[in-house]
Amino acid sequence: MRVNRNSRARTRAAVGLTVAALAAGATTGAGPAHARPETAPAAAAAPAAAYCGAAHRIEQKLSTGTTWRMCWRYDSKAGLVLENVSYQPKGETKPIKVLNSARLGQIHVPYDDGNIEYDDLTGFDFAQGLMNLAPGECPGGTIKTIKVPDSWNEDPNVKGLCTTTRSRGHAYRMQGDTANKVYQTQGKDLLVYTVNQVGWYEYMTEWRFQDDGAITMNVGATGSLSWDDYDAGDGRGWPIGKGAAAKATSHSHNAFWRLDFALDGSTKNSVEQYDSTVTPQATGQRAPTTKTTRTKITKELAGDSKNYRWWRVVSAAGKNKDGHARSYEIVPGPTTKYPGRRFTKHDLYVTQYNKCELFASNNPGNCGAGAGSSVDKWVNGQALNHPVVWMNIGFHHIARDEDQQPMPVHWQGFSIAPRDVTAMNPLTPAELGWQNGHWQPRS
Predict the structure, then answer these.
(1) pLDDT band at 29, cuts 50/70/90?
(2) Domains of the chain by range and CATH?
(3) 12 burial class (0-12, 13-18, 19+ CB within 10 angstroms)?
């Protein structure tokens, strides 16, 4: 939590002095160019993910049989970028590509008093604030060294990328046909994360790759709680400490993610929106009826979550063993939508790919006359043949006494879940494999 630019600048300088200089390990190059394709110098382009070496490769086979593969690099503004992400559950003979790239698209932080707002990725050195991780922060895993581009530390090499595995509890549980048979398994995740300090805050950016094919992405804000000295009784802050001697300024965290899908290796994916309508119970019926309709999204979209609405990205190149097109469903997490800026007024944006459209706000690239520098201005009626998904998840932080000190992590994020990527649950026990589409053996 920050209260003014000067305090943030002082904190950033202090962090730069306290980060330990460590021996160089696996490093990465600079981030991608931010200019339009026709003006971007070839030397500034990001390295192709397909050619990442062992130092930049993450490959993990989970104990339940699923293997995740991806490449990583570190961008001078976005921080950690994951590329060429593929998923291979047991029973599949080759990896199934899911994403070209996945990364944060912005963390926008406006304060309730109207005096300040921050674009943490493009305006306040998010990437340069990468923190060293102690071994105990990555239990059972590996901490990789990142060479931070444009670092303001004497040594830009930071032990800042954790890859490890975690249990997430039951993946499923089912009582069998007899009382003495229970089918259950404990789900496993590949966890990839970094910690970046911006002012008072430390952002934990985590990616959870589940053995059932889902990907969950979260930002957790922790660190220190700061305070301001105006009257919190006006509804824009909250008293902390003894009496009303110290007040914390309320503010919002509007986190954006940018996902460039490439299902089955093709970027020519389609996007569909589903809406269901529940009608009252008719005479002679036992319950109300529900009808679900599909809308194909053929042009760029600024979308809003609502009851009984969801979206999916559909492969144009691959089908599962049942002959159904593979897809990933977008599953929003809890959110508080911030109405104060145009680019935060919608929950989801789908834009046609443009290599200079990299950040949801305060985008540093000049994307052409009239295009603007925020994601809302890029939704201008273009046809979608290479869709990029931007997800906006907001959190309104009204401080509490328990936020000090240190401040407990508060999480915000969302998931993408496989829909028809495999013909059955990828964790199905072998003895239940015959139950595809029916519940008893066919003669």
Answers:
(1) very low
(2) 5-430 (2.70.98.20)
(3) middle
pLDDT of residue 154: 85
Q: Helix H segments across 48-143?
A: 120-123
Residue 163 structure tokens: 């890859």
Residue 310 · residue 298 · CB < 8 Å: no
Eight-class DSSP state of 383: B
pLDDT at 156 over 50: yes
Closest CA to 363 of 147, 108, 117, 148: 108
Show the tokens assigned to 400. Answer: 């509490």
Count how many Cα atoms sit within 13 Å of the Cα of residue 421 in the half-sphere of its side chain. Answer: 30
Using the predicted structure, report yes or no on whether residue 224 has a pLDDT greater than 90. Answer: no
Classified as helix, coil or strand, 88 is: strand
363: helix, strand or coil: coil
How many C-alpha atoms does 265 have within 13 Å on its Cβ side? 7
pLDDT digits (tens, 9 = 90+) for 371-386: 568 999 999 999 999 9
What value, to the nearest 5°, has the Cα angle with vertex 31 and ends 362 and 379?
40
* Residue bearing the bigger pLDDT, 176 or 218: 218
Q: Which pLDDT band, with edges at 50, 70 and 90, does 15 fall under? A: very low
330-331-335 Cα angle (round to 5):
120
d(CA 53, CA 57): 6
For 6, the token pair is 């000067």
Q: Which residue carries 């394709």 as its tokens? A: 37
Q: Is 15 helix (H, G, I), strand (E, B) or coil?
A: helix
CA distance 69 to 90: 14
List the structure tokens of 52: 């990442």
Identify which of 254, 274, 261, 273 has the alpha carbon closest to the alpha carbon of residue 396: 254
Q: What is the mean pLDDT of residues 89-115?
A: 95
Beta bridge partners of 193: 162, 206
Separation between Cα atoms, residue 236 and residue 164, nearest integer Å: 40
Chain mean position to CA 206: 8
Q: What is the C-alpha to C-alpha distance for residues 396 and 111, in angstroms, rounded to an integer?
A: 10
pTM value is: 0.86
Residue 347, amino acid:
D
User: Two tokens at 388?
Assistant: 């990029």
| CA dist., res. 109 & res. 107, Å (int) | 6
